[in-house]
Specification:
The complex is a heterodimer.
Chain A: H1 2-15, H2 17-36, E1 52-54, H3 56-59, H4 75-78, E2 83-86, E3 95-98, E4 117-121, E5 127-129, H5 131-134, E6 141-148, E7 157-163, E8 167-171, E9 177-179, H6 181-184, E10 193-199, E11 208-213, E12 215-216, E13 225-227, E14 230-232, E15 240-243, E16 245-249, E17 255-257, H7 259-262, E18 268-269, E19 271-277, E20 286-291, E21 297-301, E22 307-309, H8 311-314, E23 330-333, E24 342-345, E25 354-360, E26 363-366, H9 368-371, E27 382-388, E28 397-402, H10 409-412, E29 423-428, E30 431-434, E31 449-455, E32 464-469, E33 475-479, E34 487-494, E35 506-511, E36 514-519, E37 534-539, E38 543-550, E39 556-563, E40 566-571, E41 575-578
Parallel strand pairs in A: 34-40
Antiparallel strand pairs in A: 1-33, 2-3, 3-4, 4-5, 6-7, 7-8, 8-9, 10-11, 11-16, 12-15, 13-14, 15-18, 16-17, 19-20, 20-21, 21-22, 23-24, 24-25, 25-26, 27-28, 28-29, 29-30, 31-32, 32-33, 34-37, 35-36, 35-38, 38-39, 40-41
Chain B: H1 2-13, H2 19-52, H3 54-61, H4 65-75, H5 80-102, H6 106-118, H7 122-135, H8 140-152, H9 156-169, H10 174-186, H11 190-203, H12 208-220, H13 224-237, H14 242-254, H15 258-277, H16 279-284, H17 288-309, H18 313-326, H19 331-343, H20 347-360, H21 365-377, H22 381-394, H23 400-412, H24 416-429, H25 433-445, H26 449-462, H27 467-494
Classes of the chains: A mainly beta, B mainly alpha.
């Protein structure tokens, strides 16, 4: 472009006006891509493509969340709950599991009692409630969830982290589940749970289980707090922190608590959302746990299931100002496509959500202000979050669920609101801009949202969103972005030597000069689970030049020249296959 | 007593015509009794009514401070919501009172806005501030307040506009530059933030937050060495400031200074753990009553300043007293009361406020110094000396304590050797003209003319414009000449003794 400009100036000096007439069209042609904008070009003025549509009404999901609010303002009411999107029945349509609260002292007893709910995806945005048939209607006080095939039988199981005993549901493979908590030994007592995650801590090909806990709560001695004289929910500083638990999968359907020996149990925190990822790219899985109003934990794995907490030293414990935020949810994704996994953590009102950029080797830096990744979050309490390439333009955008936890916040702080709109930030080549107001009606509903999951619910190659709203029906948001000229690919990993879900494995794909990486996580966002099937936006590239899979077992598979716009199944050491095409049922 | 007996005896003997008189007297007594009861009841009801309509009355009759005091004293023993709502009522009544009395005064309206904003009526506060802007378009504080309001709502660009306007209108207002720099950092505009914050620290070189945020902005632009310098300036002001330690560790890391980074990070971790593990500190975050006390006190402090600006110092003092009473931790009110009572030579009261300030800020030597000076005023020299010694123990690197001790020794005329030692230490800490002059005076008392002359000369060199220093020097030179003759002065000039 600059050469053309210089040429025009040179000829103008030599030949005068006549050349101008010729140069202008030439310049227009040369500069057209820049004027029009291109994927990831950082042109903040260009029209964005992201359109999100609220399709809740057509989904048939009539389930409603309760936090058990009995008027006594128990802290646990504020933090329920997460949700999970995963394909429980293997039909390649991604289903949704919602967690629910339960009756607390003071709550009027309902019959039947509130329960969690599994909705089977029938036709993309048509769901049916199969909770009873599947046998997964736990009536505990649900907080967090993680999905993972812990017994490597090919069917995803899931773990529910409750206030009270937790529940492990084992998938029978026939659309039903069995409560395997007792035999697995993972009930984890009577704590206030938080996020959870399956991960393979020692690369022995079976999934271990990390269970985050929030605070030690005694409902009989629950503190009463006020703000400006109005009753409010107490905060985490009113309680003692609770240590998290790490269960080792013994490979025979049972787990053993190795919190003490692994180093995890040495730290008591106020755990919230969490995500497991290979932060330092040394081949093993590390753990990033957010703590509410306390420094976050970054547990670095030595490769043998022994962990060292290095949050402060790696830069992930606090924000740029050294402040321990009211942290809520966290997701992992390589927003700048430099190959290193970055992290986005949501937080309390009057705090920015924080983007931690991985500088390499796991060392992190808060780049929120520099990238604009906090836009739209300062005024709200922010919860669920996801990195997702919503417009398939080869970089990961951000979605953030918002809503205050104090249902009467307007009374004492008019700058806050209990029900607010959610936020979407478009990634423009490493800088973010808030496009929530112009991204369609999907973000219009004002709710007090908690968990958020991002997955392709209608198999159209565009990532959709499911949001759990406190005390209300969920919101299902279809991605209707007009980005048909942009391509995509989705990849489901099947491990052989690696755990069956491929958790902890990394997939890199090259299109042109760009290499994108993603890792399979189990448990992420705000105490939720989503994205087991990896999604990549490919921009205008209709073929992937090279696709590389670094399995958690250490094995590497490499494929070249793969057509875009399809769901692929990669089987470790075997090959890459297109998923059997499924028409809408 | 006798008459009673007689009456009772005569009751049977007296003629019947007397009986109606007695009955009438008894009836009158009853009537008086009933009237008294009725009046008491009426007074009781009236008192109740007065209490119930306390607010409108206070608006009509002006100050209702005694009622506030009574009410708050009662509420001290009750639960938080009642206390907080009483505080809110009191503060909003104060705002209403100001608005009612001084509705067209922009200063009063501004204070009203502050109070309304703090106590929940933010929309009204914004309206009030806009009204102030209509009255006085160049009112800097309004732009600052609106900027902060926008910031709290997450409207950073709007906040930056307000703060920028404030800097234009008040180029000498450090807080305007601080506000602007802060939101510019949040907006990722680090270059502009550096400019604003550089201006801020020029105006307020002792501003911890100014240096800290300048460091952040410099770090954001990649000027790491300068960022470290700025953080170090902040660190020197408050060595246990966690955010500063965190940032110092971060910038040292980036500069490759791993040892320093580790040192700062360890210190940060230690302080952070102390806060997290201290139950008292954990709970202050949710202390609604403390926040209400603070807010109400701030309202009265602002009102006090308003009245002080109008030279209505008795009203101002009343509000400051109320602020001090409401919030045991409030510093501005106590500092204002200290100044006021000192100015009015109410020494014992001034000493009381200085003592309270010392309790709140035990490490701030200014309050101890002020107390010591006041004790000197009331001739309590022993206590004054003790206070100056306390200053020396808290801040041995600062000259103030030594100066006080030296002056006190001079004043008392005892132990001039010790006075000289203190004066020398003062010069050693801070070689200013004033300290050299003090040393000169002390040495003169000791008849050590050589050292006195040297110090006086140094004082005059450092501040040639001071008539006092020149006079001292002249006097000392005259004394020297008297003692040694004309030649001696040359000798003294040729062989000046080192001061320290």
């Amino acid at each position: 472009m600059w050469e053309a400009l210089a040429l025009a100036v040179y000829h103008f000096r030599r030949n005068g006006r006549a050349v101008v007439v010729l140069s202008v069209p030439l310049l227009m042609v040369v500069m057209w891509p820049y004027l029009r904008g291109r994927p990831g070009s950082g042109q903040s003025s260009r029209e964005h493509l992201i359109r999100l549509c609220d399709v809740t009404g057509q989904t048939g999901i009539n389930w409603r969340h309760t936090d058990g609010s009995g008027g006594r303002r128990y802290i646990v009411e504020t933090v329920t709950a997460g949700l999970a999107t995963f394909d429980y029945d293997g039909d390649l349509w991604i289903d949704i599991y919602f967690l629910n609260g339960a009756a607390l002292p003071g709550t009027a007893r309902a019959f039947p009692p509130p329960r969690n709910a599994l909705f089977r995806n029938r036709t993309g945005f048509s769901f049916e409630d199969v909770t009873a048939a599947a046998g997964v209607g736990d009536t505990g006080f649900g907080l967090g969830i993680a999905v993972g095939d812990y017994n490597n039988d090919g069917f995803p199981d899931f773990y529910v982290n409750n206030f009270g005993p937790n529940v492990l549901y084992r998938n029978n493979g026939d659309g039903t589940f069995v409560n395997a908590t007792a035999e697995a030994g993972v009930a984890a007592g009577n704590r206030v749970g938080a996020g959870a995650a399956f991960l393979d801590i020692d690369a022995d090909s079976d999934l271990d289980l990390y269970v985050a806990n929030y605070v030690k709560v005694d409902l009989e001695k629950h503190p009463v707090r006020t703000a400006e004289g109005y009753p409010i929910y107490p905060g985490p500083m009113d309680f003692l922190p609770e240590a998290d638990i790490l269960f080792r999968n013994e490979g025979d359907g049972t787990f053993s608590d190795i919190s003490a020996s692994s180093g995890i149990g040495n730290y008591a925190g106020t755990g919230m959302g969490m995500v497991c990822a290979d932060i330092d790219l040394d081949g093993d899985t590390d753990i990033f746990v957010l703590n509410d109003v306390a420094g976050n934990f970054v547990f670095v794995n030595n490769g043998h299931g022994q962990f060292e907490e290095l949050g402060l030293w790696l830069g992930g414990a606090y924000n740029r100002e050294g402040r321990a935020l009211g942290s809520m949810g966290i997701d992992c994704g390589d927003y700048d496509n430099d190959g290193w996994p970055d992290f986005y953590a949501t937080s309390y009102a009057r705090e920015w959500a924080v983007l931690f950029r991985n500088l390499g080797g796991g060392r992190m830096e808060d780049v929120t202000a520099a990238t604009g990744a906090g836009a739209g979050t300062f005024a709200h309490v922010t919860w669920g979050t996801a990195f997702a390439d919503l417009d398939n333009d080869e970089d990961r955008d951000l979605v953030v669920a918002c809503g205050h936890l104090q249902d009467n916040v307007e009374l004492f702080d008019p700058t806050g609101a209990y029900r607010v709109e959610n936020v979407v930030l478009e990634n423009l080549g490493g800088r973010f801009r808030d496009i929530s107001r112009s991204a369609g009606d999907g973000l219009r509903p004002r709710r007090s949202s908690r968990g958020l999951a991002a997955d392709d619910l209608d198999n159209d190659g565009r990532v959709d969103i499911a949001v759990l709203n406190s005390r209300e029906e969920p919101t299902i948001i279809a991605n209707c972005s007009p980005c048909s000229e942009y391509h995509w690919v989705e990849i489901q990993l099947v491990g052989i030597r690696t755990n069956r879900d491929g958790v902890g494995s990394r997939v890199g794909l090259q299109t042109g000069q760009l290499v994108q990486w993603a890792e399979v996580h189990s448990g992420r966002g705000y105490q939720s689970h989503f994205g087991s099937r990896l999604h990549f936006g490919l921009g205008r590239f209709s073929h992937i030049d090279e696709l590389q899979i670094r399995w958690h077992s250490g094995h590497r598979d490499c494929f070249v020249n793969i057509p875009a716009d399809q769901v692929l199944i990669a089987i470790e050491s075997v090959g890459l296959f297109p998923a059997p095409c499924r028409s809408k049922k | 007593m006798a008459s009673v007996v007689n009456e009772s005896i005569g009751q049977e003997t007296q003629p019947p015509s007397v009986l109606p008189k007695r009955a009438a007297r008894r009836g009158r007594r009853r009537l008086v009794f009933f009237i008294a009861v009725a009046v008491s009841l009426l007074l009781f009801v009236l008192a109740g009514l007065l209490f119930a309509i306390d607010r409108p009355l206070s608006l009509l009759f002006g100050s209702s401070v005694p009622d506030w005091r009574q009410q708050m004293a009662q509420l001290d023993a009750v639960d938080a919501p009642a206390f907080v709502s009483a505080a809110r009522r009191e503060a909003l009544a104060l705002a209403a009172q100001l608005r009612h009395r001084y509705g067209s005064d922009p200063e009063a309206l501004f204070v009203c806005g502050l109070i309304e904003s703090r106590f929940g009526d933010r929309a009204q506060a914004v309206r009030t501030w806009h009204r102030v802007m209509e009255l006085v378009p160049n009112y800097v504080d309004v732009y600052l307040a609106l900027g902060e309001e926008a910031r709290l709502r997450g409207q950073m660009a709007k906040a930056a506009d307000y703060f920028r306007k404030a800097t234009e209108l008040g180029p000498d207002r450090a807080e305007a530059f601080l506000g602007l720099g802060r939101v510019l950092i949040d907006l990722g505009e680090n270059q502009q933030a550096v400019a604003a914050l550089s201006q801020q620290v020029q105006l307020a070189p002792g501003s911890l937050e100014g240096w800290y945020r300048l460091g952040l902005a410099l770090q954001g632009t990649g000027r790491l060495s300068e960022a470290k310098e700025a953080f170090l300036r902040a660190w020197r002001i408050k060595p246990d400031h966690r955010a500063v330690l965190f940032s110092l560790a971060d910038v040292c890391d980036k500069l490759g200074q791993k040892g320093e980074a580790t040192r700062f990070r360890r210190e940060f971790a230690r302080l952070e753990a102390a806060v997290r593990l201290d139950p008292a500190k954990r709970h202050t975050w949710y202390d609604d009553v403390a926040a209400a006390r603070e807010g109400l006190a701030a309202a009265h402090v602002a009102a006090g300043r308003f009245f002080a600006a109008r030279d209505d110092l008795s009203q101002a003092e009343e509000h400051w007293r109320r602020a001090a009473e409401v919030d045991p931790q409030n510093i501005p009110a106590r500092a204002a009361l200290l100044d006021r009572s000192s100015a009015e030579s109410r020494w014992s009261e001034a000493i009381h406020w200085a003592e309270e300030l010392e309790k709140i800020e035990p490490q701030n030597i200014d309050w101890t110094l002020q107390r010591a000076a006041l004790l000197v005023q009331v001739r309590q020299v022993e206590q004054a000396e003790e206070a100056f010694r306390k200053v020396v123990s808290i801040a041995p690197e600062r000259p103030d304590g030594y100066v006080g001790l030296a002056q006190l020794a001079l004043f008392r005329g005892r132990d001039p050797q010790a006075a000289r030692q203190y004066a020398r230490q003062a010069v050693s800490c801070d070689p200013t003209a004033a300290n050299y002059h003090l040393l000169a005076i002390v040495c003169e008392r000791l008849d050590n003319l050589e050292e006195a002359l040297t110090a006086a000369k140094r004082a005059t060199e450092l501040d040639p414009g001071s008539a006092q220093y020149r006079e001292t020097l002249g006097r000392l030179q005259w004394k020297w000449r008297q003692l040694h003759g004309q030649a001696g002065s040359h000798q003294a000039e040729k062989k000046p003794q080192p001061v320290n």
